[in-house]
From TrEMBL:
MF GO annotations: phosphoribosylglycinamide formyltransferase activity
First-tier enzyme category under EC: transferase
Residue ranges occupied by any Formyl transferase N-terminal domain in the UniProt entry: 4-144
Protein name, per record: phosphoribosylglycinamide formyltransferase 1
Pathway(s) where this gene product acts: Purine metabolism; IMP biosynthesis via de novo pathway; N(2)-formyl-N(1)-(5-phospho-D-ribosyl)glycinamide from N(1)-(5-phospho-D-ribosyl)glycinamide (10-formyl THF route): step 1/1
InterPro entries membership: Formyl_transf_N, Formyl_transf_N_sf
Species this chain originates from: Photorhabdus asymbiotica subsp. asymbiotica (strain ATCC 43949 / 3105-77)
Gene Ontology cellular-component terms listed: cytosol
Tagged with keyword Transferase: yes
Coiled-coil segments: none
Length: 220
């Protein structure tokens, strides 16, 4: 039986929407939000059930989220979310809450990670997929994609990171739906590539996910 997967979002949902439009074989079983946001529109466009949790307290929100996940037989949660999860959900869904962060970790955690990375002017920008733990973007990494800076404008760099996230989401969902275990990123794959390749760590992606990435890059 395929895994049942929920989306937890407090954002516009553009990464998820782009993937669902580009790969009709990918689907989600539930959308959960904590506020009125464009991600809720995915429910109508792709016929996905939606629940909004109106709780201001992080612990109360997390407890309610856990109830909903269990009652809907959800196995995994992909997360595009701006709040910390707390309490029992971290134990009940250990290594099953998967966050998509638009910057490299641990250098640029938290909100506005992409903007922090641009201001810092390091050699690379990139994106990270990691399991959620009790900290702020401190969980074990699953996928980390890097791009070597070459004086591109901010909008182009934002599109590159966006494309990385779409491809990474495809990789994660494809594996989870097929009950393939997500592996922890090996330390040697986290090191900055000194030969200044344009893209690094793309070998972490399958052929299908890589094709999605290249298609999005070419469309910019």
């Amino acid at each position: 039986m395929n895994s049942r997967i929920a989306l937890l979002s407090s954002t516009g949902g553009s990464v998820v929407k782009t993937l669902l439009r580009n790969n009709p074989d990918i689907n989600l079983d539930l959308i959960i939000t904590d506020r009125k946001c464009p991600a809720e529109n995915l429910s109508d466009e792709f016929s996905i059930p939606h629940v909004r949790i109106d709780e201001k307290s992080n612990i109360k929100f997390s407890d309610k989220l856990l109830e909903i996940l269990i009652s809907n037989d959800i196995d995994y949660v992909v997360v595009f979310f701006s709040r910390l999860l707390q309490g029992n959900i971290l134990n009940n869904y250990n290594n099953k809450l998967i966050n998509f962060h638009p910057a490299l970790l641990p250098d640029f955690p938290g909100m506005n990670g992409f903007e922090k990375a641009i201001r810092n002017q390091k050699k690379f920008i990139g994106s990270t997929v990691h399991f959620i733990d009790e900290g702020m973007d401190t969980g074990k990494k699953i996928i980390e994609l890097r791009y070597y800076l070459k004086n591109e404008c901010k909008d182009k760099l934002r599109h590159i990171v966006f494309s990385q996230q779409v491809a990474s989401l495809n990789e994660v969902l494809k594996n989870l739906k097929n009950n393939i275990t997500l592996n922890i990123l090996r330390p040697e794959n986290e090191n900055e590539n000194e030969n200044e390749n344009e893209n690094t760590n793309l070998d972490l992606l399958s052929k299908e996910s890589l094709l999605i990435y290249k298609k999005l890059i070419q469309s910019s």
